Amino acid sequence: MVSAAPLAASPAAVASPPPLLATEGLGKRFGHFRALSDVTVGFPEGGITAIIGPNGAGKSTFFNLISGAFPPSEGRVLFRGRDITGSPPHHFARMGIAKSFQITNVFPQLTVRENVRVAAQARSVRFAFFRHRSAYPVLTERAEELLTEVGLASRMDRLARELAHGEQRALEIAVALAAEPTLLLLDEPTAGMSPEETREMMDLVQRLAETRTLILVEHKMKLVMGLCRRLVVLHQGQLLAEGTPDDIRAHAEVRRVYLGKSA
Asked: Rounded distance, CA 210 to CA 47, Å?
C-alpha cells in the first residue's frame, strides 16, 4: 500500500515572521500628563518603517521608549521576542540597536575620522579610548569605511564643528553605525535641513536600509510616503493607524486628523 504524500501547507497556514521590534501596551506619563497610551505595534525586519504624526502626537516620546532613553510607565518593549523593557541604553547597543537623535551629538573638537574611530573603539576596547589612532589601524580603517558609506569620505580630516548641519547628521549616523547595529533608529533625520540636504539624507537612509532595518521618526508625511514599506501613525499619544503607504493614504481618520481632509 502506497501511503499518501503529505499535504502542502496552505499559504494561510504559514506563519508570518515575528517582528524584530515590538511594543505591548506601551505608555508614558510625565507627572499628571500622559504623553503616550497603550501603544501595541510590531516592526518587521528589513526595510524602513516611519513613525509619523502631527506635532504633539507622541512620536519623540515613543522613540525615547523604544531606544531605551527612558523607561515606560507601563507596557513592554520586545526585541527579537526578548523583553528589554527598562534595560539601560548600553544594553540596547550590545543587542544591536543603535540610535541617532534629532539634536546632533558629536565631539566638535575631534576630526570626523576620530569621531567614528572613537565610537568603533568604544565597542571593542574597554580602556584607553583616546590613544593615538595609529595604535588602532583596524578601527581607523573601519571608521573610514563608514564615513565613505555616509558620504563623508572627503571630510575625514576636518573638525566635526566645521561640518555643515546635514554633514553633522551624516557623521552622527556613521557614529551609530560603528556599533554594527541590526536596527538603526533615527529621530527626525532631516530636521533643520535645506531641501538639498534633505534629499541627500533620504538617499542615505535608502542606501542604509539595503542591509539594515531602519525605524525613523518623521513629521513630513510626503517625504516618507515613497521611501518606506510601512508607516505607523500616532495621534494624541495613541496609535491611530499602521500599514503600507497605500493603506495610510486611504485611511479616513488619518486623512481627517493628519492631512486635514475628509474621506
From this structure: 7
pLDDT tens digit sequence for 98-113: 998 766 678 999 999 9
Give the type of residue at 33. Answer: F
Pairing of strands 230-235, 33-43: unpaired
| pTM (2 d.p.) | 0.86
Contact 116, 147 (CB under 8 A): yes
| Of residues 210, 180, 209, 227, the one with CA closest to residue 218 | 227
Residue 57: how many other CB atoms lie within 10 Å: 24
Question: Are 208 and 169 spatial neighbours (Cβ–Cβ below 8 Å)?
Answer: no
The Cα–Cα gap between 71 and 26 comes to 10
* Secondary structure class of 51 (helix, strand, coil): strand
pLDDT digits (tens, 9 = 90+) for 217-234: 988 878 888 899 899 999
Alpha-carbon dihedral sign for residues 122, 126, 214, 66:
negative
The dihedral through the CA atoms of 172, 236, 29, 25 has a sign that is negative
Smallest CA-to-CA distance from 168 within 225, 93, 106, 89 is with 106
